[in-house]
């Protein structure tokens, strides 16, 4: 589940780097605390998983965001919409022979951000839908 967060945040940073010349995102560099809660839709037997991650976000990180993307060669962005306060995209990845279709929307406001990612997985156990809710706040300097 933590890999989903890393991919989501990496895609966000990669997108920010891609559009940096057009409009800077409303996101302040610094030490950030992120929480993401992932649940499997329709599976009451599987409890939601909550993870907390601290990460230093620098201007250099944004400029070289492709370093964060663990499996970028296996993913293709299908749709992307970026503004100063919001990022949304659809992405398809092929991982370990599984097709994963992701839709994400992130909203950012300087020292805070929140968003949601929905991932449809075509797994050996059948189709699964993972829902990840993300929130983050800047907690200080790196």
From TrEMBL:
Keywords: Signal
Pfam family, one: DUF3617
Signal peptide from the UniProt entry: 1-22
InterPro entries: DUF3617
Protein name: DUF3617 family protein
Organism, as annotated: Ectothiorhodosinus mongolicus
């Amino acid at each position: 589940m933590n890999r989903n967060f890393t991919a989501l945040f990496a895609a966000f940073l990669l997108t920010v780097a891609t559009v940096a010349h057009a409009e800077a995102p409303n996101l302040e560099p610094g030490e950030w605390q992120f929480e993401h809660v992932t649940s499997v839709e329709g599976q009451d037997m599987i409890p939601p998983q909550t993870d907390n991650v601290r990460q230093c976000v620098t201007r250099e990180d944004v400029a070289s965001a492709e370093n964060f993307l663990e499996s970028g060669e296996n993913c293709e962005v299908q749709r992307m919409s970026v503004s100063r306060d919001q990022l949304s995209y659809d992405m398809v990845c092929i991982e370990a022979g599984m097709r994963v279709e992701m839709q994400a929307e992130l909203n950012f406001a300087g020292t805070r951000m929140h968003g949601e990612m929905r991932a449809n997985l075509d797994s050996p156990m059948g189709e699964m839908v993972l829902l990840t809710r993300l929130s983050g706040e800047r907690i200080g300097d790196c």
